[in-house]
Amino acid sequence: MTTIPQLLNDDGSASVATAIMTSHHGFRRDLEQFSLALGRLSELDAERVAALSEEWTHFRHKLHGHHTAEDTGLFPSLRAQHPSLTTVIEGLDADHRRIAPLLADGDRAFAELSASAGTATEVVERLRTLLAPHLATEEAQLFPWLRAAKQFPPPATEEELALYAEGFAWSCHGVAPEVVERLNDILPAALVERLPAARAAFAARYQRVWGSARAGAARTPLPEWIP
Hints:
Blueprint: H1 16-39, H2 46-81, H3 86-111, H4 118-142, H5 158-171, H6 177-186, H7 189-210
């Protein structure tokens, strides 16, 4: 049985591993929400269908950006520092190549959501099937090497600062408050200042799309309300 890692280190501190694993929490949370919402599609009005389609666009950009950052930064760095990880990273790279066409399939399916939910449901389930072992492998094999990294790189531009604020608001929605507080300890001050407004904006969007702003209080990258 796979052990689900804690978001915080054993000493209660946050690390770069914490920051990345909150993204994993966000991916799992949103895929579950998509699955639930698509199963109720016949009950949704046109406004909710539009909201789901828009939220898919946000989700796919998050996932694509996450994998691009890994392909161009995290994976090469870890491979150089720890050659023993090469085989694991090659497998994760192969997963990324399989995910890219699924995102394109999702773009088409959610564009036609008002006509049928069948294809979108299939895409979501295929993504969940592929991402479950992929995320678990990263968490078990790669992220232990990031537990000692206690400083998140500062944004280089105002645009990047806004992007990071929106990204952490998304990934940490439903994460336990004490984890969020410790994560703030390692984030740049300018970013921490932006987060309250970004979190409020995202909570409002979450409410609009999913019908409730409640998302739990996870201490692992797996939302505790997901079976």
